[in-house]
Amino acid sequence: MLIGVPKEIKNHEYRIGLTPSGARELIANGHKVMVQRDGGKAIGLTNELYQKAGAEIVDAAEEIFARAEMIIKVKEPQPNECKMLRTGQVLYTYLHLAPDPEQTKALIASGATCIAYETVTDRNGGLPLLAPMSEVAGRMSIQAGAHALEKAQGGSGVLLGGVPGVQPAEVLVIGGGVVGINAARMAMGMNANVTILDRSLNRLKELDELYGDRLTTIYSTHDAIEERLPDTDLVIGAVLIPGAAAPKLISRAQLSLMRPGSVLVDVAIDQGGCFETSKATTHQNPTYEVDGIIHYCVANMPGGVARTSTFALTNATLPFAVQLANKGAKKAMLDDAHLRNGLNVHAGKLTYEAVAKDLGYEYVPAEKALA
């Protein structure tokens, strides 16, 4: 199979979908790899490293999309990239379709087979290709929130960990999944007072046993969130419904309960965001203010630490890429139900139920579409 790796073109996105080591693995399995010139240069993955691994360096993304049988990316294809996809071509990347009807329409029209990292599953019910970036985003959310709390950034001027004799910040983490746990760990490490909310009693019990009195665990309800907003300096939105739009957990009216200069970090923004006032931002302009509250809603947050994120992501995505290349996409997905769960669009059909429900499309089960 001929595999193409274009340079990412989203604002301040420096990750790349395949490392030189990954290219070497695919080539060792009998495949050919094309990488767009300077696709990984910004994070130290030079053209020479890819060439040493056996990959071909190609100048233009247009050539990669025209020739490759499978495209491996990081972020969802931008509009001009969607136009270059073709029937029968495999796209393997993050998609986040539920909050993006225009991309969904374009991918359906392309006729391509589109596999979303964020909906591939594992035997434990987890999301193994989302988890690495969730770990990064969870940890980054506290760094970003701490910076946004600085007065020069529009925040309230509170130091997350305080100092002797001065109270530390109050951090509220909504969601006890991978993002939430990593955010809580970072916040505790910086000596903030941390509360985590979740609707899984088993998860709350695990966290309580693990962290004891360093972490307050609360069952998540609308009342529980509202009661804590007046005393909270930093809120981390870390909820996830796989493949579907995130629920709105804090309304605009509730912002008035918070102290001016408090900060909301919406890690769920790729799925539409979990705050009513959330809108996607970029690393170039990461924050904005609504009713005195600072919002950080960068849609590709792990791209800010692109080298770490690239290696963490490709460690997880490479084994599935090898499966897709070795067997062909159709057979690989029919043989592996977990990989098949990643199929969102195939030959003009929408094959992921949560996305179809959110966007009003007919849902065609992946097995039926592939057959």
- Helix and strand pattern: EHEHEHEHEHEHEHEHEHEEEEHHHEEHH
Biggest pleated sheet: 8 strands, mixed
In CATH's first tier, which class of the largest domain applies? Alpha Beta
Supply the number of structural domains: 2
What is the distance, rounded to the nearest whole angstrom, between the alpha carbons of the first and last residues?
21 Å
Radius of gyration: 21 Å
* Average pLDDT number: 96
Low-confidence stretches: none
The helix fraction, in percent, is 25-40%
How many helices? The count is 14
The share of residues in extended strands comes to 15-25%
CATH topology heading of the largest domain: Rossmann fold
- Assigned CATH superfamily of the largest domain: NAD(P)-binding Rossmann-like Domain
Task: Report the CATH architecture of the largest domain.
Answer: 3-Layer(aba) Sandwich
Number of strands: 15
What structural class should be given to the helix and strand makeup?
alpha/beta
Shape: globular
**Lateral strand order in the biggest sheet:** 3-2-1-4-5-6-14-15
